[in-house]
TrEMBL record:
Subcellular localization: Nucleus, Nucleolus
GO cellular component annotations of the record: nucleolus
Protein's name according to its UniProt entry: NOL11 protein
Entry keyword set: Activator, Nucleus, rRNA processing, Transcription, Transcription regulation
Gene Ontology biological process terms, A to Z: maturation of SSU-rRNA
PANTHER family: NUCLEOLAR PROTEIN 11
Pfam families with a match to the protein in the record: Nol11_C (PF20998), NOL11_N (PF08168)
Nucleolar protein 11 N-terminal domain location: 1-289
Length: 677
């Protein structure tokens, strides 16, 4: 979520369908999926091809897989049977019993009670609903029937276990939440023939407030006194609007609500005090905190909701007045912390406690919106100089956003040194200040772009490409007048003597002129060879340092390749010449590592060369000025392949020599001649 890049992607073959949600095994860090109902797949993060992953065909259709932090995954079959994954993998074709007849599973959940895994699921048949509680390790199963209600039916379920009692919560179509308490039985042989027990339910919560009714679609339990409900809030005479709400079940009050104008998928997930939901086309993450429930806070909350008091919660994406998030005072029992549309990193702990006569960050920035440049920068420096707090990173992101907003409103304003200082001394990311690099590109601030490329872990590929194009299009004469960090190039490009590179003795790693001439019938003139075979850097040190920053930037090939195809042919050839130069420089060293600080690695160089050739290969083959470069690159790579293949031939002899050295006594002096055949 934080980097906005797919870390892994796996797909089944054409015609195959994933038939239940993919889960992660907490113990082995493996992914588990089921396709076509019966085919089980297990793989790890480093596996690339799903078709080559572990495969087991089961004898019955799988309904759901439930991972447990300690007990291992539980597999629920559509017939109601449950197996632990370990037992199932011992004999994938084992017979799976059918425990439910004509019933459809509507919901299921897995829990740990002590050391025992417990799986609870609900079924429906002809309008009747049933609850099953199963302990796989003990082989026990208990079936209950829910008390019928003529006017409404359950829409969704959730449950939790406390003190040997299952609390099943049911959201009904009459806009109410009901509670069912089920004691966990101590299983004995006499219970096998027990009769079906009918469960009675009690009203827990009515989802209505001030005449408005919430038509819930899904809900989750937050703690013993609070639940969150996602649904459509309908008030008399008004259009229904989708909302995320938090309710106090103890005092029957709605504690907080947030409108979701872009619509949702109707699904709500909760994990580690964070809500996850689909809002429009993006994943939204909302942080929350539950405090101790009290009557005073519940009554106070009702009063606040009538007066529509606004607190200091800020949407960190923008700083406009209308974008302030409307919420309630911090003394309420439950607070929605902040919304993150696309990433979680920029939303870490964005709640600030209301202190007397202390402005929140959002209010301060709004007050400074029209302040003078001096006042703005002075106040922002004081804000950043405060003692570190949990939300300091988000605060600094707001500061940068305030500065970039002013830059966009006033083209003459650009605090270059202030921005550079913030980026160099603070742990920022692109998602915290998404407009910063766009403004730097507009102002042609190469030094700031270089710093951002080296420090930000989540730069979009489109921005990376824009920086690359800007660096390549900048003239060498103009770059010499710009302050650029040369730490990554000074150790392998000598900038003295009118920027002419000083030649040093080269110890080549598998490449020599004799081998080169032996492997290619076409001989190049000496002048062209010395110019294009990687011996001299095709760009100046400033441009080289900027290009090195691009090589360090993280990217996803699928997203970067379309942008690289738009790079002009001349710039693509120049970039490839520089990459070839770096490749040769790396190959001169035994450890294939360039000296210096933040220098590109051999893997980064090779990856970018492959990317560039993939994007422009047809164009480069047709261009006469690229022919010599491609030929030299081909010869160099072929020479290295031949060198390493020769090393592979003597690998066995070298291992034998190493073994003999271990066997020889260290006190004995001898001279041995080993013949390598």
């Amino acid at each position: 979520i934080s980097d906005q890049k797919p870390l892994g992607c796996w797909s089944v073959k054409h015609g195959q369908i994933l038939t239940c949600p993919v889960v992660c095994n907490f113990e082995t860090h493996e992914y588990i999926a089921v396709h076509d109902d019966k085919v089980l797949r297990i793989w790890k993060n480093e596996d690339i091809n799903l078709d080559k992953a572990f495969k087991a065909t089961l004898s019955a259709d799988v309904c759901r897989i439930h991972p447990l932090p300690q007990g291992g995954p539980l597999v629920l079959f559509r017939g109601g049977a449950v197996r632990t994954l370990d037992v199932l993998l011992e004999a994938p074709q084992q017979e799976i019993e059918n425990l439910i007849s004509g019933e459809a599973i509507r919901w299921s959940g897995a829990f740990m009670e002590g050391q025992q895994p417990i799986l609870i699921f609900t079924t429906e048949k002809d309008g009747d609903f049933f609850v099953y509680i199963q302990k796989p390790k003990l082989g026990s199963l208990h079936r209950y029937k829910l008390d019928q209600q003529e006017s409404s039916k359950p829409l969704c379920f959730t449950a939790h276990i406390t003190n040997q009692t299952v609390t099943l919560l049911c959201l009904y179509s009459n806009d109410s939440v009901y509670q069912v308490l089920i004691p966990l039985h101590q299983d004995t042989a006499e219970e096998e023939e027990e009769k079906e027990e009918i469960l009675s339910k009690s009203l827990l919560l009515n989802l209505s407030v001030s005449g408005a009714v919430l038509k819930g679609t899904s809900f989750v339990v937050l703690d013993k006194d609070h639940i969150a409900v996602l649904g459509s809030l309908a008030a008399p005479g008004k259009e229904p609007r989708e909302c995320l709400t938090i309710w106090n079940t103890k005092f029957q009050t709605m504690q907080a609500s947030k409108e979701l104008p872009l619509g949702t998928s109707g699904q709500l997930w909760c994990y580690e005090e964070k809500f996850f939901l689909i809002h429009g086309k993006v994943l939204t993450v909302i942080m929350y905190k539950c405090e101790t429930s009290s009557l005073a806070s519940a009554v106070g909350k009702l009063k606040d909701s009538q007066t529509r008091d606004v607190s200091s919660f800020v949407n960190w994406n923008t700083l406009e007045d209308e974008e302030l998030v409307v919420s309630f005072q911090s003394q309420e029992s439950v607070a929605l912390k902040a919304e993150s549309r696309m990433n979680l990193r920029s939303r870490r702990s964005t709640v600030a406690e209301n202190q007397p006569e202390t402005l929140s960050v959002g209010q301060l920035l709004l007050n400074l919106k029209d302040a003078s440049t001096y006042v703005l920068e002075t106040e922002l420096k004081q804000l950043m100089a405060k003692a570190p707090t949990p939300d300091l990173q988000a605060t600094i992101g707001c500061v940068v956003t305030a500065l970039t907003d002013r830059c966009k409103r006033n083209p003459k304003y650009y605090p270059q040194h202030f921005l550079q200082q913030i980026v160099e001394t603070r742990d920022l990311s692109y998602s915290l200040c998404p407009d910063l690099m766009a403004v730097a590109l507009e102002k042609k601030d190469m030094h700031l772009l270089q710093t951002c490329l080296e420090r930000f872990p989540d730069i979009p590929e489109e921005i990376t490409y824009a920086c690359l194009k800007a660096f390549l299009s900048m003239s060498e004469a103009h770059l010499q007048s710009i302050d650029v960090n040369l730490d990554s190039v000074v150790c392998y490009i000598d900038v003295e003597f009118n920027n002419e590179e000083v030649k040093t003795e080269i110890v080549e790693n598998g490449f020599s002129a004799e081998m080169d001439q032996d492997m290619c019938d076409t001989k190049m003139p000496k002048e062209s060879q010395s110019r294009s075979d990687g011996e001299s850097c095709p760009v100046g040190p400033q441009k080289a340092a900027l290009l090195n920053a691009v090589l360090h930037s993280a990217y996803t090939e699928t997203f970067l390749l379309p942008h690289l195809k738009n790079l002009p042919a001349g710039q693509a050839i120049l970039f490839l010449r520089y990459l070839y130069y770096l490749y040769v420089k790396c190959s001169e060293k035994v450890n294939t590592t360039l000296p210096g600080i933040r220098c590109p690695t051999i893997n980064q160089i090779m990856d970018w060369m492959c990317l560039l050739l993939d994007a422009h290969f047809t164009v480069m083959v047709m261009l006469p000025e690229a022919k010599e470069l491609l030929s030299n690159l081909h010869k160099f790579v072929r020479a290295q392949v031949r060198f390493y293949s020769e090393l592979n031939k003597i690998e066995g002899s070298l291992r034998e020599l190493q073994r003999l050295n271990h066997l020889r006594e260290s006190q004995t002096y001898s001279i041995e001649v080993l013949e390598i055949i």
